[in-house]
Each structure stands twice: as C-alpha cells, then as structure tokens.
C-alpha cells in the first residue's frame, strides 16, 4: 500500500508548496505495512493540526482495505510511532477518534514504539489506558489473539 508525504517546512512556520529544497523536510510521511497479516501504519515526522486530517484518512482507508481478512471483520490497526518526533492534541484526537470508531465492530487502534514524551502525554491526558502502547506491532497483535482466546473461553464457560 502506498504512503503519503504531507507538505514541507522550508523554515520556521513556513510551508513549501513546490519541490522541497535541501533544507526542507516533510511534515509527515505515512506508510502502511503488514505484521501478522494485519495493518501497521508507520508515521514519520510531525503529527499536528496540519497533518491530523490526512492521518485520520489513512487510518480509515486502511480499515477499508484490510477488513476482508475475516468473515466477521474486526478492525485492528497498529500505528508505529518510532519516527514521530512531534505530536500535539490534534494528533491524539485522531487516535481517539479512530479507536472509538473501531470499538463497536470489536476492533481497536494500538500504538507501538512510542517515545517517553508521548507516553508521558498519554499518561497526563488519561489516554494511556485507551490507547495502549506496545514495544512492537507484533506484541500489539498478540494481544488480539489473547483477547480472542479469552472471549472464546468465556463463551464456553
């Protein structure tokens, strides 16, 4: 699945519209890969009010692409944040919005490879319990299997 690159800063607070110069950098680059047969969205750059709408679209597009794997699709997506060097409340809002959208279908959004600053932000805002963080995408998807096994065990009790 192809990724996207959003804008470029050519200087503090300035956005470039043409080809980036050697001093500019992309605001945000996304790519979608697969781990354990499920989607992983990797973010590199800045997740803020300018880039949040595009990340939300990538998340929803990813759900649409990958929901054919199961007879009863459950939208599970992990967002890899190893390359994210800035995230504000607009970025957190994207994760909460997409997670809440996925819940009624039995799905979720999980985060992996978060840095200590983002973990602290999740703790301070009270979102750490909702937006669970894992060391790797594989660890997050292993939680899907544990949850499914637990639900099956409750059904047969």
**Low-confidence runs of at least 5 consecutive residues:** 8-24, 150-157
Name the CATH superfamily classification.
STAS domain
Beta content comes to 25-35%
Number of strands: 7
Q: What is the string of helix and strand elements? A: EEEEHEHEHEH
Main sheet specs = 7 strands, mixed
- Distance separating the two termini: 41 Å
Helix content: 25-40%
Annotation field: number of helices: 4
Mean pLDDT: 78
**In the CATH classification, which architecture applies?**
2-Layer Sandwich
Top CATH class: Alpha Beta
Specify the overall morphology. globular
How would you describe the oligomerization state of the chains in this entry? single chain
Reading side by side through the largest sheet, how are the strands ordered? Answer: 2-1-3-4-5-6-7
Would you tell me which CATH topology applies?
Transcription Regulator spoIIAA
- Whole-number total of structural domains: 1
Radius of gyration: 17 Å
Structural class based on helices, strands and sheet pairing:
alpha/beta
């Amino acid at each position: 699945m192809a990724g996207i690159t959003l804008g470029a800063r050519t200087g503090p607070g300035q956005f470039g519209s043409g080809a980036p110069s050697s001093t500019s950098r992309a605001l945000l680059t996304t790519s979608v890969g697969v781990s354990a047969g499920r989607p992983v969205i990797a973010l590199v750059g800045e997740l803020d009010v300018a880039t949040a709408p595009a990340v939300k679209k990538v998340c929803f597009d990813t759900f649409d692409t990958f929901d054919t794997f199961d007879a009863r699709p459950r939208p599970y997506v992990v967002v890899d944040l190893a390359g994210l060097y800035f995230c504000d409340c607009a970025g957190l809002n994207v994760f909460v919005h997409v997670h809440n959208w996925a819940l009624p279908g039995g799905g979720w959004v999980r985060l992996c490879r978060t840095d200590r600053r983002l973990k602290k932000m999740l703790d301070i805002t009270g979102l750490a319990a909702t937006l669970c963080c894992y060391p790797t995408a594989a660890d997050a998807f292993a939680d899907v299997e544990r949850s499914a096994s637990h639900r099956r065990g409750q059904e047969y009790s």
